[in-house]
């Protein structure tokens, strides 16, 4: 079995900013198992150099990934793919609870609150069907 490696391609013509392209590609590879839990990511400077980006661009992507629970930074030891399932589930549950409370304060009934979520999900996730 060959070891997994990080593969990122930056498309300068894409609508998404380079930091978002880095964030999305690392998150997708972690989610689909292409990068296993514990995989050590390149340093910010190293990846920035490899991709021809500013170090701040990669650092911004790493910070967003850490906030999302996709990676964890272990000080001078580097950044690693985290066991994202549990952290992502907890964060999603907290966001859902916050949304539900806000929707109720706004006076939306259950059906209207759910419809708003479904609209947002359709707008955010590509349709596979």
Number of strands: 2
Strand order of the largest sheet: 1-2
Helical percent range?
Answer: 55-70%
Counting helices, strands and paired strands, the structural category is mainly alpha
Topology:
Elements: H1 18-31, H2 44-51, H3 55-67, E1 71-73, E2 79-81, H4 84-105, H5 110-124
Helix pairs in contact: 1-3, 2-3
Nutshell version of this structure?
This protein has 129 residues and is mainly α. It has 5 helices and 2 strands, in the order H-H-H-E-E-H-H.
Walkthrough of the structure:
The protein is mainly alpha-helical and 129 residues long. The protein has 5 helices and 2 strands. The chain has a two-stranded antiparallel ribbon with strand order 1-2. The mean pLDDT is 89.
Structural features:
2 strands, 5% strand, mainly alpha, two-stranded antiparallel sheet, 129 residues
């Amino acid at each position: 079995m060959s070891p997994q490696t990080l593969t990122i391609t930056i498309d300068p013509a894409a609508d998404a900013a380079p930091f978002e392209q880095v964030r999305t590609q690392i998150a997708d590879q972690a989610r689909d198992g292409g990068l296993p839990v514990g995989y050590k990511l390149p340093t910010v400077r190293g990846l920035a150099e490899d991709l021809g980006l500013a170090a701040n661009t990669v650092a911004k992507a790493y910070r967003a990934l850490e906030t999302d629970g996709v990676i964890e930074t272990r000080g001078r030891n580097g950044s690693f793919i985290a066991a994202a399932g549990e952290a992502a589930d907890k964060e999603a549950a907290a966001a859902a609870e916050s949304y539900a409370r806000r929707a109720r304060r706004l006076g939306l009934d259950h059906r209207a609150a759910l419809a708003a979520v479904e609209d947002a999900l359709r707008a955010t996730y590509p349709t596979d069907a």
